[in-house]
Amino acid sequence: MIVQTSITLPDELVAELDQRAPRPEERSALVAEALHCFFITHRFTNDELKILDRHAEELNREAEDILGYQVIP
Predict the structure, then answer these.
(1) Structure pTM?
(2) pLDDT tens across 9-39, in order?
(3) What are the DSSP calls for 48-71, one per residue?
(4) Beta carbons within 8 Å of 9's beta carbon, 6+ residues apart
């Protein structure tokens, strides 16, 4: 089953994606493969997910704080 979805990406990622996969079906395949690879290499156990869920708000606040220091050239 194939499901169509929409995602928001930063301009620089869109530019790179368009360069590497100019046709829509190529872009879909590249994004699907990237997600597949990520999921295979980043498997979480239920215990890890519970810990992340418990601390999600704090982790999100810290991430937002850190992003505030980021300077885009």
Answers:
(1) 0.53
(2) 999 999 999 999 989 889 999 999 999 998 8
(3) HHHHHHHTHHHHHHHHHHHHHH--
(4) 17
Query: Which of these, 31, 32, 36, 38, lies nearest to 17 by C-alpha position?
Result: 31
2 domain-assigned: no
Query: Is 6 part of a structural domain of the chain?
Result: no
User: Is residue 59 in some structural domain?
Assistant: yes
**Number of domains composing the chain:** 1
> Which domain, by its residues, includes 37?
11-69
Q: Is the pLDDT of residue 4 over 80?
A: yes
Six-digit token string for 67: 């992003």
Report the C-alpha gap between 64 and 11 in whole angstroms: 20
Q: Which of 57, 4, 11 is nearest to 65 (CA)?
A: 57
